[in-house]
Amino acid sequence: MSEKTPLLHYRLTAGTCPSTKDASKHSGTKVGKGGKPARKLGVVFGVVMPTLLSMFSVVVFLRIGFAVGQAGLYQTIAMFLVAYFIITMAVFSVCAISTNGALDAGGAYYMISRALGPEFGGSIGIMFFFANVCGGALYILGLVEAIMSAFGIPEEGAAGPHQVLPSGYWWSLLYGTGLLCLCFIVCLVGADIYAKATFIIVLIVVAALTSIFTSFFIVGSVEVNLPDMSILNGTSRSSANYTGFKLNTLKENLLPSYTVDYTTGTMMDFAKVFAVMFNGCTGIMAGSNMSGDLKNPSYSIPRGTLAAVITTFITYNVLSLLSAWTCERHLLQRDYSFLGDINVWPPLVTIGIYSSTMSAAMSNLIGASRILYALSKDRLFGGVLAPARKTSQSGNPWVSVLISWVLVQVVLFAGKLNTISSIVTIFFLLVYANVNLACLALEWASAPNFRPSFRCFTWHTCALGILGCLVMMFLINAIYAFASIAFMLLLLMLIHYLGPVSNWGFISQALIFHQVRKYLLRLDVRKDHVKFWRPQLLLMVANPCSCTALVTFINDLKKSGLFVLGHVKLGVLDGLPSDPLQSRYDSWLSLVDHLNIKAFVNLTLADSVRHGVQNLLFITGFGGMRPNTLILGFYDDCTPQDHLQGKVLQSTGFGLDAVSPSKDPSQRRTPFFPSVRGAEDPKDLQEEEYVSVIADAVKMGKNVTLARYFNQFNREEVLGSGRRIGVSGSKMGPFVDVWPLNLLRPDSRGYVDTCSLFLLQLACVLQETRAWSQAKLRLFLCVEDGCSLKEEEEKKLRAMLKELRISAQVQMVAWDQVVALHWQRRQNEARKVLESAQNDNISEREEEAEKECGIQNFPNNAAQLTDEYIIAVNHLIRRHSAPKPAVRFLYLPRPPADTSRYCSYLRHLDLLSQDLGPTLLIHGVTPVVTTDL
Known about the structure:
With 933 residues, the chain is of the alpha/beta class. 52% of the residues lie in helices and 8% in strands. The protein has 31 helices and 14 strands. The model is unreliable at 1-38, 650-671 and 849-861 (pLDDT under 50).
């Protein structure tokens, strides 16, 4: 029924025992070189015998007649074919996993958990634990049934000389409790005796089976007295016939004849009989559980397990044929222990039943305790299983044994073997389905290191095994099947989200990689369309300690797009012994976990910041997933602040365990990143290089965003309790202000250009995120001539907002006086130039003056912008800031073509955004909106 393997074969993890010496003493194995237990078992003693002992138990002695009597020979053989098809598919998967490299002690749980990661291993381990618990109770109940059949006082009729035990539910529960206590005591103090007696038990079972087969041929016709039938009202027949080999008997037993089970009073059907019969087909993992003691596990496990499966299949089918050929249907339906009644020496069958069933129950109790101990050692469920890690001085996990014993005792209250057989069968079917699923996942992941030497499996066998298990689960009991699958999924999610970090490897990561690679190849940039545009952002970070607020804000702005944190470390690889960036990735990933953002990290080594940004823009991403927008912090004289000061981030390989204030003043900063730059420390790049980075990005077709004053941005205050209270008393969402006009080019004539539309798109993207869904957009339009736009421009703008489905509060802002400051200065300068040209009679200067007056391009215009005008624009923006917005979106002009004007360009941006609070200056170069469906 389940893995009835000796105690020494359940060392489920390396380190199950406190020391190698204790492990050797506990298991009875010799210690080989290097302090490891000597591997000395081969195919027969290491795999075949444990598997046979697991599969030959209650069913072979007590339920063959039940299956044939209820379902008939045809359906019984069909049941065995279905059952063995299911377990053969599972055997293929077990053999494939077990032959995928060197194996240590541990069994099925150890193999699957180490091969597939904690999610699969832990969930399968728990299900396997409950299967062994229920299996142990099933064997105890089967043993009680056998004892009561032989020695129990019938409720009606005369009792025989040997029938001296009181009968009834509570008496049977008492006998089962006593037998379970005996198993419990042996598991605590005498498990090594059981391990040494395994070979003797196998001999007893083989001898009993031999006598059974022999009896069919040498015993003549016999009238068999039937056991107590008081549970079946109206049944008066007290005996049935063993006819010997007769064709009439065979014909009568070919077809099904379902009736009431005399032990439970339940009407039988195909699913119920299959559930009982399937318990004799389990135990296929007993050989793999002995992997630590096999000379050559990769050779022994496939051959030994398949040999045991074939042997039991032949035995069960031949025994079913002989029973159908020689026994009346009434005998098969009303006496499950008829094999002892027709045996040449009945006590031998009784001894075989008692020894095999007791061995199976003890093995399940041992197996359940070792699985529980292994789960507690791996700490997959945190402190919940912490008590199960306690062991005795000899290394015996006595607390795990105690917990398993209590759970088996609870299951014993079911009272009858057939009552819990459905639950046990569903548990094992689910375990086998998950083994197939695990092997299927490994096969589909196409991991190069998954190349088992056992090649008699494909993804087809895994899929058929899963399908067969699921179909039979729902045929047996749909409610139990749904409940067990839900429990399994819950375990997977709990371990995935709450389990500790392990270095076993995660099959989920292999599958994700496989699928992501496949779909990245299909993400063809030639098929990009503007209506499916999304922001793919590269945020350059000098030191994350000073820009955590900006990082979290950009995470909101990405709108399910790509978000990459980029960092440039200055240096040249030629003068370094190794790559200094490899050791820093864990620190950055820990920061990503701490900030709870969805971002990738890309670091580069370069001789300058400009070259590093160029490298990142060239190489970041794959295929159609490449950054289309570069985000930079603003270049100003503000001293950066350490927002992680006083916190210590502790990492355990990956992820973040805790963030807590540091009590040691010397550790009041994150150990992962350097201290922030001080007021006197020089910057890594100069003004010209900073503007060159912007110009480079524009040349490469990337949108550019400059972020300023985000050290003042408090996300919790803006989006949480800090929302402003309106006139009605209700909370108002934050405001997002958008100024779509190029304020550094007063002669601009339109609001509908690529850059303006990009501003609007980013503002809408921010509003569509869940956290900013209550934000309100305010669109500020700078107008002249009596605060009104030209009719054509105004009509075009409103039509555009409607077509783009943008809901915003449009506000007209009069800036006649501001623009006048610019034009007055320009006219005075132009007049001076013209006068100088006339005095000198130089035609070239006249042409130059005309160009100056025409203001044909931005570089010339920028050269003539005055600080007075830009400060006036800044004051204009600040005057229209009631209520104060959470963030502003401003138009970022293209950098001038003349590199000598870079400093002037940067000074203009500084004056424009001075004291505006969190502000994004945005320059868009690609179309991002469309009105087409």
